[in-house]
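quick one
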Amino acid sequence: MRVLENYIAGNWVPSSSGELHPVTDPATGEVLAEVPFSDRSDLDAAVAAAREALPAWRDVSTIARGRLMFELRQKLVARRSDLARSVTVEMGKTLPDADAEVGRMIEMVEAAAAVPTTMQGRILEDVARGVDAETIRQPVGVCAGIVPFNFPAMVPFWFLPFAIACGNTFVLKPSEQVPLTQTLAFEILDELDLPPGVVNLVNGSRAVVEGILEHPGIDAVSFVGSAPVARIVYERAAATGKRVQALGGAKNHMVVCPDAVVEPTVNGLIGSAFGAAGQRCMAGSVIVTVGDAHERIIPPLVEAASALKVGNGLEDGVDVGPVISAEACDRITDWIGRAIDDGAVAVLDGREPSGNADGSFVGPTILDRVEPEMPIVSEEVFGPVLAVVRAETLDDAIEIVNASPFGNGVSIFTESGAAVRKFRHDVEAGMVGVNIGVAAPVAFFPFSGWKASFLGDIHAHGPDAVDFFTRKKTVTSRYFSGGATSGSYFVER
Ligand code: NAD
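structure w/ nicotinamide-adenine-dinucleotide:
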């Protein structure tokens, strides 16, 4: 059985902890490898390597660091199909979906390659007579990433390429449920001419996370995962004085207006709710129909969702792969039962899907007659379960959306510019889709949840990545031989 290793100071090394856990293919139940749950000494070694590498790495020219991103991009493109296959095998999403994820991963590297432009500071001449002020950006230091299972390739790359392009060094803790794809990504990183210690990988679980949060050698923490863990990370990292961004869970609403164009709307709703078996933080999990949109949209939606093929994501023609684990399968089927007990009507019930009996499958499920106050509307299920709520007006629909404790993504389906304008203005969420079911911003824009979906100030990727991975330093200067007056700069303007 393959036992995964950590990548520290440019070498693959076994974890010093003897604790090993199986990594399983959720479609078959097959054990793919064993992942170590590393201990504090493994983390200490990674942080020491990252600290040691930092001074020389921040002195590499910004242009050379940007150029390295071009090289990384080419290597990832060359291994794209291997990366996608790895995502499907360990996480379960279908191969085309995994390929799209790897495309987004590569796009992050493309955005990070712009660092000679994006990392520029600003200057203002003559803030007083002969006095100039300038703000420069410098790396933050040693940065750590803690990531979830549902995007094994992309989410770690929301942080790693931007962090190192800005001159930081990095320690990644992948999800213990899907560690294989980042092992492959680090094999690719290892082919670059990166100095040892610039990037490090420590496999493990909670103990590594707790070590990161209290480690004096770590300056900044980027977290993506469930809302309760995001809160722990945010509070504990802040308590030790670290810069922190913590992206949490979600419950995304999709509002359908009476004038929505039926076929593309149904396709958008299906892709959002059931793609990746509903395990995307941008998955739409509540439909709010406005007025008679319900009669127009729900029957064709149920028909189309009933035709989706559930199975192993490696096979052609499969639409919905497995959920991540047997535990997730039980949790999701429990949620369906509870919602039905609360009064919902299952117009499509996925509790007994086709698929390998040893795999973890839940089929697409649509629950109609759901009331806005039911837990199935306010709490995250993270599976292929779609709740349908009815609203009389757009105002009522927006009220239902805004009652959610989460504020990640929302979508509206309509051809009315006025409805879109109102929705965009009033809705309390960080990412809005207009006739788009999964409005995940591209790498060049920030990924920006609100409310319980995000704790922190600076969001992920886009211009925010450079803000997060740099510290600003403002220099005020004058030269007397150049004609500056010698009085108090503070007083005289
Ligand atoms: P999770 O919170 O269980 O795990 C995330 C990471 O935290 C993992 O690396 C895990 O090892 C670690 N962890 C788990 N429990 C911990 C604990 N008690 N103490 C310290 N560390 C702990 O999340 P998951 O199940 O891997 O991923 C799914 C969740 O992630 C969903 O809630 C989803 O909405 C969310 N997510 C959010 C975004 C976003 O952009 N907001 C993106 C992707 C996923």
